[in-house]
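If you are new to this repository, start here. Below is one unmodified record pulled from the training split, so you can see the exact layout before writing a loader.
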Amino acid sequence: ETLDRTTNGSGFVREHTLSERKGLNAGWRFSLDNRTYPFRDQSLQIPTLAEVLCTFPDLFFTLEMKDTSPTAADFVIAVCTQYDVLNRVSIASHEDWKFLLHVRSACPEIPINAPRTLVICFLIGMKLGIYQLHKWPFEAFQVPIRYQGIPVVNSTLIDAAHALGKVVHCWTINHRNEMLDLWGLGVDGIMSDYPD
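And here is the target side for that same chain:
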């Protein structure tokens, strides 16, 4: 949402032109140890969505939207349609169900995630044994392993989601052993700060 998070710029992304954003270093604030910054002397530009989709034609992308306005949704849908990638993207918002309903209405082909409120409802429905009674209007659970110390991802959730044709993606997983454990449980995707 802001340039301050990763770049040497400041302010909201939407308040800057593409040209201004392209002049910033996208890796400026990256550090593994909070002391060294290995990308500050490199020219790492912020890529456009089209550039990312074209650079990695074999990857599936979750587009987590920070700007959840209908205008932003329509723009992203237009880019995905133009580059014929509707089969390898999903659109996510962890808070804004209204936004996700707009995406669903504008482009039913693009999978969407369950916002936090629906994840909680699903987990309660699992505990009560009634989760199968509801038609869940999303394709993916994109969840942390734990939320406020409470385990979220386990074989029960994964089996229940799969029984309804939903996928389970876990974030943010940065340790190899944890990744292997999750693959062993049957998760469908992992989000990591270290894609290598």
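Two things worth knowing about this chain: The beta strands are 61-64, 89-92, 140-144, 146-147, 150-151, 167-171, 189-190. The CA atoms of residues 61 and 111 lie 11 Å apart.
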